[in-house]
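Friendly challenge for the regulars: who can give me the structure tokens for this chain first? No prize, just bragging rights.
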Amino acid sequence: MPIPGTRRLSRVEENAAATAVALSADDLADLDALATRLGVAGDRYNAHHLGLVGR
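First reply, four minutes later:
Bragging rights claimed.
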């Protein structure tokens, strides 16, 4: 899962290359189980930034 936001071209290239990683059904199931076990708490954005989403 590439996460852009960097100053160096080498990191941008590294992030872009991550899109070529293929995850198996077992990999996805493991990630889903982990995310479910950890749970999610709180909002993703604060109120100000939430108002900017989708503009």
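The CA atoms of residues 33 and 49 lie 29 Å apart. The mean pLDDT is 85. Your move, everyone else.
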